[in-house]
Amino acid sequence: MTAFQTMGPLSVLHAFLNVSRWRISADKGMSVRPDTINLYVLETGGCEGCAMEVESLCGSAFALEQYGFARVTDPADADWLLVTGPMGRACVQMLERVWNAMPAGKSLVAVGACAVDGGMFGPNYATLGGLKALTPVRRAIPGCPPSPQDILVGLQRLAEG
């Protein structure tokens, strides 16, 4: 008799729903921030690998809020703008609109190789490459794609200065 047959089908479902067992906890080398930094994510295309990794931060395995970050859906509420993917020519106006809608004190963060310098999507008729083509990139989280934990650690390091 297998463990699945002994426990029953609902036990397996219960184990998956017990997220505290699987969640990366704050005591594993990650500090908890007292103030919340609001993040607005702009996906500019590409393979969407980095965008999926950022999305997984908002799930139950990574408690983004536990580390002092919150994802917002309105740029007017955001402190930091996270950009994933290469900078498509069609996305430049959208980036400008989102950036201008954000309040003073805002920061731009490139997530992944494509957002920084275009990665495998170099400058061509459709893309400018990465954000480097538009502005100096001072805050970046490298990787292709960076893992959710790498993104979280990168955000914490950027928040610390």
TrEMBL record:
Q: Which residues form the signal peptide?
A: none
**Which GO molecular function terms does the record list?**
4 iron, 4 sulfur cluster binding; metal ion binding
Coiled-coil segments, which residues? none
Q: Where is the NADH:ubiquinone oxidoreductase-like 20kDa subunit domain?
A: 47-157
Q: What Pfam families does its record include?
A: Oxidored_q6
Q: Which cofactor does it need?
A: [4Fe-4S] cluster
Determine if Phosphoprotein is one of this entry's keywords: no
Query: By its UniProt entry, which SUPFAM superfamilies does this protein fall under?
Result: HydA/Nqo6-like (SSF56770)
InterPro entries xref list: Complex_I_20kDa-like, NADH_UbQ_OxRdtase-like_20kDa
**Spans traversing the lipid bilayer:** none
Keywords, ordered alphabetically: 4Fe-4S, Cell membrane, Iron, Iron-sulfur, Membrane, Metal-binding
From which domain of life does this come?
Bacteria
Q: Does the keyword Iron-sulfur apply?
A: yes
What does the sequence similarity comment in the record state about its family?
A: Belongs to the complex I 20 kDa subunit family.
Its name, as the record gives it, is: NADH dehydrogenase subunit B
